[in-house]
Task: inverse folding
């Protein structure tokens, strides 16, 4: 689990599991994501992409959440 | 309704004030409805457009209690006006609204971790909290086993399992609420020693009552720089203290933004670890996941989506027609009856033409509004609304809108009023405002009579397909205008960071029809009160404009009397302005007369041309309009004028009820007036382009 393997959430295929590794987002958005349960180390699974390719739906802490690729590109993850 | 106690007293003799808080989609409103039934009222919080739902119920000893339904929120660290209200009520910050005595925290049993985040924050408020574990049946079906004694022990507060839609757990909840005295929470999430220390120190310096100081301090500690800047106007010394505290936390290698969130989630994890188990469900697909494999599928998703929207539209336009006809018949019969009871007089004309006619014009839309709300209720309660937003977000974000803007805009095809009222589901203020501002560009059903008569004048003998084609073009024009306008507003006027989309996809659920029926009832009341009062005043004003001054000779024909009235004079007065559009002063009267409600254009034109009005047969009016000539003998209603007039009605506001509702929803006159101005300008310029441009191209 070194930082070299960190990738971004928006580039993950459906079905991929991973762990939140960090954020490149403004503080307000970062705080919001943290509060929605995307804390560092939280496990998630990419469920699907919307029919037009955006937004992306993930499962985290037992519930489903969608967010746009724009923000997902600012979430660093580690594949599991 | 029993009186609502808002005094500051906290003695147990006073009516106990209960606040109900929870995440969106946790079934909070079902519990609110089950407790209060029809003993509820809806209003706004002072100064903001957030809905305030209050009601009363009786505790287990028959003692009256007051219940406040707080807006659904994920956190007390707020992002939307709705969440801000929930926080401010709980911290007793709102003037005139006393701090509650006890909080019911509703959590979705099958989504415990995320739901407990808000509970963790509520436990920091030093108020008694009762957790309602809602939808335990769903959780059980999903294989989530919850050890209640362990959960109670870990949280240190009462936990009541509930199935709100079936009334299970209500008695236990009332018993818990009737406890005297109510117990304050025993535990809360522990923070890093340094953070605890800084929070305590900051709390000591705050000029607020002791029990509020610590939670206020925690909020200040986690506010990021920009939010602190925005607060700076309030209390400089406090802000400085908060900044310094944050600085010291950062010095110690901690991040003030995540340190509290992480601590709360870590605590929640330990709570859940001790009380929740999911034997053998890890790799099982839930029912919702399986439904979504179809409903959000690349191809099937669109088919389901179009079918759902199509069904909704069909009901709004065809099924609603029957009750609308009945209402029209009742109103006409009533007006006729009043007519007969009174001698011919100004009062009689005011009652039948002004008041009954004007109010009737609003009431007639009630069936469409109710059906729209019925569908909105089903979409929301089943969870499909989030899927519709998920599917549409890409398209809507192209013009800077939000997936959730789609349903309000769609609803505006029936009537902009429920559409605008439905924008309350959009959290971001800018997104919501832009949606409100462009919603009336969608061709509502009140435009249909105008399109119908103008198409009949334009192409009297054409096939149904040609007529439908023209109609479709008008609808498309409205849609294109709305999207262009949204794009313009988002890029030019509401500049700045595009807000992020965070859309929870709740599991599919069976809707509760009592809940939906209650909401329809509540919305219908709101609509009638909001639109009704303004429409009544304007109907009287417009009646006066078309009635006065009265001609000296009582034998004067209706048409001549109208020409001499204030409205007629206004028609003449604006003629130079509308002449470039090819409109004469008689059309001017129609525009003035339908300023408050566009559908009255047809009845006004019937009076202008002295045609006996007949709901079912427009042929006389059509033929008169086709034969209408200018003084020089050329026809008034050339194809370009007909098209220009329709285009004008596609784009112009011409609806006072909408203005009134926008005023209510935005809490200022600024936005409705801006909207009225831009839409009228847009309508004028577009008609001008049609008429003048058409002429240049050699059309008539």
Result:
């Amino acid at each position: 689990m070194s930082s070299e393997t960190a990738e971004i959430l928006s580039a993950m295929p459906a079905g991929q599991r991973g762990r939140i590794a960090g954020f490149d987002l403004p503080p307000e958005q970062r705080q919001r994501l943290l509060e929605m349960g995307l804390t560092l180390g939280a496990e998630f699974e990419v469920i699907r992409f919307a029919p037009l390719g955006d937004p992306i739906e993930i499962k985290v802490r037992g519930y489903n959440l969608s967010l746009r690729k724009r923000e997902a590109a600012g979430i660093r993850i580690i594949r599991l | 309704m029993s009186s609502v106690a808002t005094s500051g007293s906290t003695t147990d003799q006073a009516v106990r004030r209960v606040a109900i808080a929870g995440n969106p989609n946790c079934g909070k409103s079902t519990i609110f409805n089950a407790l209060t039934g029809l003993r509820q009222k809806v209003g706004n919080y002072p100064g903001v457009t957030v809905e305030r739902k209050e009601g009363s119920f009786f505790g287990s000893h028959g003692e009256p209690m007051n219940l406040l339904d707080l807006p659904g929120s994920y956190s007390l660290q707020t992002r939307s006006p709705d969440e801000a209200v929930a926080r401010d009520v709980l911290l007793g910050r709102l003037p005139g609204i006393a701090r509650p005595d006890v909080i019911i925290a509703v959590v979705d049993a099958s989504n415990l971790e995320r739901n407990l985040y808000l509970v963790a924050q509520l436990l920091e408020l030093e108020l008694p909290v009762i957790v309602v574990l809602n939808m335990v049946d769903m959780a059980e079906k999903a294989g989530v086993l919850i050890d209640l004694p362990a959960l109670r022990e870990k949280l240190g507060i009462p936990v009541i399992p509930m199935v709100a839609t079936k009334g299970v757990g209500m008695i236990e909840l009332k018993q818990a609420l009737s406890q005297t005295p109510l117990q304050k929470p025993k535990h809360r999430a522990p923070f890093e020693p340094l953070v605890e220390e800084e929070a305590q120190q900051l709390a000591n310096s705050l000029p607020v009552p002791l029990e509020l100081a610590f939670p206020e301090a925690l909020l200040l500690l986690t506010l990021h720089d920009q939010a602190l800047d925005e607060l700076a106007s309030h209390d400089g010394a406090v802000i400085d203290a908060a900044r310094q505290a944050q600085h010291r936390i950062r010095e110690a290698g901690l991040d003030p933004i995540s340190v509290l969130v992480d601590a709360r989630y870590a605590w929640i994890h330990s709570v859940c670890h001790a009380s929740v188990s999911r034997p053998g469900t890890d790799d099982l697909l839930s029912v919702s996941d399986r439904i979504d494999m179809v409903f959000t599928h690349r191809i099937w998703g669109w088919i389901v989506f179009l079918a759902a929207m199509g069904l909704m539209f069909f009901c709004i336009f065809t099924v609603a027609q029957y009750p609308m006809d009945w209402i029209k018949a009742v109103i006409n019969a009533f007006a006729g009856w009043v007519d007969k009871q009174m001698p011919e007089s100004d009062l009689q004309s005011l009652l039948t033409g002004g008041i009954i006619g004007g109010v009737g014009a609003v009431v007639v839309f009630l069936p469409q509004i109710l059906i729209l709300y019925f569908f909105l209720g089903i979409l929301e309660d089943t969870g499909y609304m989030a899927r519709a937003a998920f599917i549409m977000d890409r398209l809507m974000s192209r013009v800077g809108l939000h997936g959730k803007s789609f349903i309000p805009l769609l609803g505006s095809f029936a009537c902009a009023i429920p559409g605008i009222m439905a924008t309350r589901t959009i959290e971001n203020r800018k997104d919501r405002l832009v949606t409100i501002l462009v919603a009336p560009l969608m061709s509502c059903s009140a435009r249909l009579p105008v399109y119908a008569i103008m198409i009949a004048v334009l192409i009297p003998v054409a096939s149904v397909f040609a007529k439908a084609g023209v109609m479709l073009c008008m609808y498309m024009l409205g849609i294109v205008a709305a999207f262009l306008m949204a794009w313009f507003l988002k890029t030019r006027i509401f500049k700045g960071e595009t807000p992020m989309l965070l859309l929870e996809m709740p599991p599919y659920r069976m809707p509760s029809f009592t809940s939906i029926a209650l909401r329809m009832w509540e919305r219908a009341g709101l609509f009638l009160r909001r639109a009704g009062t303004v429409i009544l005043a304007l109907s009287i004003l417009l009646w006066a404009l078309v009635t006065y001054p009265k001609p000296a000779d009582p034998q004067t024909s209706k048409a001549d009397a109208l020409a001499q009235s204030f409205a007629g004079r206004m028609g003449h007065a604006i003629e130079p302005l509308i002449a470039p559009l090819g409109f004469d002063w008689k059309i001017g009267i129609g525009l003035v007369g339908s300023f408050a409600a566009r559908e009255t254009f047809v009845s006004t034109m019937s009076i202008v041309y002295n045609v006996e009005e007949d709901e079912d047969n427009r042929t006389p009016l059509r033929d008169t309009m086709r034969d209408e000539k200018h003084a020089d003998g050329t026809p008034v209603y050339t194809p370009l004028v007909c098209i220009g007039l329709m285009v004008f009605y596609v784009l112009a506001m011409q609806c006072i009820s909408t203005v009134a509702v926008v005023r209510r929803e935005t809490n200022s006159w600024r936005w409705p007036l801006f909207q009225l101005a831009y839409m009228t300008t847009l309508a004028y310029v577009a008609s001008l382009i049609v008429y003048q441009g058409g002429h240049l191209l050699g059309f008539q």
Notes: The CA atoms of residues 25 and 71 of chain A lie 8 Å apart.
